[in-house]
Amino acid sequence: MKTLSFKDIQFILEALEALVKIYTNRIQKLEALENYEDEISDLSNDSLFLQELITDFQNQQTQELAILVSEPDLKKSDLETLIKQVKNLSIDEKLILVESLTSSIREEYNLMRT
After folding, report:
1. 50, 16 in Cβ contact below 8 A?
2. CB-based contacts of 20: which residues, under 8 Å, 6+ apart?
3. Close Cβ partners of 7 (under 8 Å, ≥ 6 residues apart)
4. What is the pLDDT of residue 27?
5. Which of 78, 99, 100, 101 has a beta carbon 3.0–4.6 Å from 74's, enabling a disulfide?
């Protein structure tokens, strides 16, 4: 099986979330009608499965980001390796990494202030 990149996973997540939204809308329409309990049940089960997939992919993304920033005491060689890894990321992936780092720094700063 092909190893999925961060961008691949993000694309899949967006598609899965769109599909869950479609299923949710369909379920809401069917609930207003009679004799569709089986279809509602099937759609609900499928939606739950899709939600589990979304959670799994989000966890995988989080783990990949954690690997990139997991070593707190960076040596020069480690920093160079990290820079090389980041250079291979797409712009979207770099933006997500910056967002997660910024959030982490804000949390740490707020903890220091309290």
Report:
1. yes
2. 47, 50, 51, 54
3. 90, 92, 93
4. 95
5. 78
pLDDT at 83: 80
Question: Helix (H, G, I), strand (E, B), or coil: what is residue 72?
Answer: coil
DSSP 8-state symbol, 75: -
Contacts of residue 4, Cβ cutoff 8 Å, sequence gap at least 6: 12
CB-based contacts of 40: which residues, under 8 Å, 6+ apart?
27, 30, 31
Is 26 within 8 Å of 43 (Cβ atoms)? yes
pLDDT at 76: 64
pLDDT < 70 regions, the chain: 1, 67-77
- The confidence score (pLDDT) of residue 101 equals 82
What integer pLDDT is reported at residue 49 of this predicted model?
96
CA 43, CA 37: separation in Å to the nearest integer? 10
